[in-house]
Amino acid sequence: MNKEYLELYTDYLLSTFGHATATGLSALVNGQVSHDQITRFLSGGEYTSKDLWLEVKTTVRKVEREDAVLIFDDTVQEKPYTDENEVMCWHYDHSKGRAVQGFNLLNCLYHVEDISIPVAFELIKKPAEYCDLKTRKRKRASLVTKNELNYAGCVCAEQVEVSLCFVRHLVCLEGKYVPHQTNTRKRLCVCAEIQSFGGCKRRRLSCFTPIEELPWQEETLFTGWLKDVPFPVLFVRQVFTNKDGSTGILYLACSDTTVTRKLILATYQKRWPVEVFHKSLKQNAALGKAPVRRVATQNNHVFAVLYAIFKLECLKIKRHLNHFALRAHLYLKATRTAFDELQALKAA
Predict the structure, then answer these.
(1) CB under 8 Å to 207, separation ≥6 — which residues?
(2) E-strand spans in the chain?
(3) Domains, the chain, with CATH or none
(4) Which phi-psi region, left, alpha or beta, contains residue 161 (left: φ > 0; alpha: ψ -120 to 50)?
(5) What is the CA radius of gyration of the chain?
(6) What does the alpha-carbon distance between residue 48 and residue 249 come to, in Å, rounded to a whole number?
(7) CA dist list (Å): 21 to 9, 42, 52, 290
(8) In degrees rounded to 5, what are phi and psi of residue 75?
(9) Which of 142, 154, 163, 332 has its CA 20 to 30 A from that of 69?
């Protein structure tokens, strides 16, 4: 990895307010670095979570605490005009309620207090092509589910050594990939959101009961089994009121059966920083504004965006300003420079 180009490119991602192109970066530095050099940097070997962890590990070790959590979640970046490949294809976007063309990014975020640091990532790939018999259309499929990727991430969490781990499954949770408490020196507890139509059984019987049909009361906890899970999990329910006055119900499953309902709900509430993190990726680091078309360059651009957000997080810790305030500061400076240059041109 060319660290000099990585620092230059990520600084450019944080500074630009338009499209992030290799020619734009070259013009910014007055041709001291050619656009071909930047293109070759992005086209090199694919950077992975291991490379990201090596960059952020020192900072994580400085801020780590017992009550830290790992948050797993994915986001879809729509790119309707980019050529399709195994990464840039159709993914279901829950925020829009439909499939969109773009890429699907699965992130692992280390969160403690008000600090959020990306420690791992995975671009969802769909290399398998098939014909849908119902619609007669060509479609793509992934060889690995997001639950399996989440499971692999939870196993890797042993290396990060956090005390609690929160996993948010955006696909239907069958429970097959919820890991059990590990043998690390720190307890690893996995709290997963499950669909209301998921089935569970309270005893090792052959029949399953829909989770909403259990005799729930306000502070009830149930210990039961999910399908294909060889160990018991703890179930809790939370009833909440939406902004429109309607009532919603949330079911959670936890792999640690010794914790309290209050702790499970408190852990689940720590999920929100990942939503702010995804918003910052898209608005502050040009996640969807680079015209990259090959799988390798798309992957490396995403890696650079995550590293750029990590740099922005370090600035947040130092300056006590959030990502959006820091970018607003840069934008104001850029606007003032442009305004002064305009006055100089008019005077000339």
Answers:
(1) 201
(2) 69-78, 89-93, 98-112, 115-123, 128-131, 138-141, 164-167, 189-194, 199-201, 209-210, 221-226, 233-241, 247-254
(3) 3-347 (3.90.350)
(4) left
(5) 23
(6) 37
(7) 10, 11, 22, 6
(8) -140, 150
(9) 142
